[in-house]
């Protein structure tokens, strides 16, 4: 093998130096690219975090508003129900008062009609009696006279309207209740 | 109610010279009686405001006397004349 000349050595060194320079430049370029990519990724990450934070905040605000509206709706419904309940209670009370008044009127009217009926009946009925005896009696002081006959129509005996008003065993007349007899 | 009560009695043994009396009794108490003496006949009537349950009868207030209670001889009566 032959010995390299100085010229060749210089060319080879030059080539090596060039290659080293190119490699260094390439490495620098790559490093810059990596740095750029890192910067970009960090920026993207920051944007995503901010967007997520903003979205969460918006959702919280939206949910809070919705909850407030729901509470307001429930409150309104409760107020409406309470008003309706009060109205119903008043209506029931009014109806009860009206029914009681009607019942009282009916009772009064019933009593009035009963009184009128008794008056009409009483005035059209003959309350009376005539009785006689069947034998002679020796009377001492305090003796009740023995009128023991109440059916002798030939002598006008009668007890009306209720034959039991005169007792033919005790010879006493008991005043009957007034105005409740139908005498046909 | 107002009721008129009365009676008529046929005396078998009239007494005009000593006290003999008949009376109308209300609830076992004398309410009215006749004169001091009885003759051959005794009668009177009265009106009485009665209430339900009042008990009326005729009694010898002061005896003794004998009376015929046969039909047509003696009777006891009453009738209502008002409420």
Q: What this model shows, in words?
A:
The complex is a heterodimer of chains A (184) and B (83). With 184 residues, chain A is mainly alpha-helical. Chain A is built from one helix and five strands. The model of chain A has no long low-confidence stretch (mean pLDDT 89). Chain B has one domain. Helix content of chain B is 0%, strand content 60%. Chain B is built from no helices and seven strands. The interface between A and B is large, with 40 and 39 residues.
- Count of DSSP strands of chain B: 7
Number of helices of chain B: 0
Distance between the termini of chain A: 175 Å
Rg of Cα set of chain A: 65 Å
Outline of chain A, from the CA principal axes?
rod-shaped
Summed up, the domain count of chain A is: 2
Please state the structural category of chain B.
Answer: mainly beta
Reported for the largest beta sheet of chain A, the result is: 2 strands, antiparallel
Helix content of chain A: 55-70%
- Catalogue the unreliable spans of chain A: none
Percentage of helical residues of chain B? under 10%
SSE pattern of chain B: EEEEEEE
Number of helices of chain A: 1
Low-confidence stretches of chain B: none
What oligomerization state is this entry in?
heterodimer
Task: Provide a concise account of the structure shown.
With 184 residues, chain A is mainly α.
Main features:
A: 184 residues, mainly alpha, 2 domains, two-stranded antiparallel ribbon, rod-shaped, B: 83 residues, mainly beta, 4-stranded antiparallel β-sheet, 3-stranded antiparallel β-sheet, 0% helix
């Amino acid at each position: 093998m032959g010995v390299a000349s100085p010229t060749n050595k210089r060319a080879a060194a030059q080539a090596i130096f060039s290659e080293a320079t190119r490699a260094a430049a390439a490495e620098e370029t790559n490093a810059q690219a990596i740095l750029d990519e890192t910067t970009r990724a960090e920026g993207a990450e920051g944007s995503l975090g901010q967007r997520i934070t903003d979205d969460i905040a918006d959702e919280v605000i939206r949910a809070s508003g919705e909850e407030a509206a729901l509470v307001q709706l429930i409150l309104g419904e409760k107020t409406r129900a309470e008003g309706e309940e009060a109205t119903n209670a008043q209506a029931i009370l009014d109806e009860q008062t009206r029914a009681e008044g009607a019942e009282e009127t009916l009772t009064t009217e019933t009593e009035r009609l009963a009184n009128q009926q008794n008056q009409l009946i009483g005035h059209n009925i003959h309350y009376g009696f005539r009785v006689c005896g069947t034998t002679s009696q020796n009377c001492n002081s305090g003796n009740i006279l023995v009128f023991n006959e109440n059916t002798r129509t030939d002598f006008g005996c009668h007890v009306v309207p209720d034959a039991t008003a005169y007792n033919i065993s005790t010879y006493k007349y008991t005043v009957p209740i007034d105005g409740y007899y139908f005498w046909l | 109610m107002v009721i008129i009560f009365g009676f008529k009695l046929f005396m078998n043994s009239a007494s005009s010279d000593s006290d003999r009396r008949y009376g109308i009794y209300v609830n076992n108490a004398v309410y009215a009686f006749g004169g001091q003496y009885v003759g051959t006949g005794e009668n009177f009537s009265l009106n009485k405001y009665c209430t339900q349950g009042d008990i009326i009868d005729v009694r010898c207030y002061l005896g003794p006397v004998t009376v015929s209670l046969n039909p047509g001889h003696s009777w006891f009566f009453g009738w209502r004349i008002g409420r």
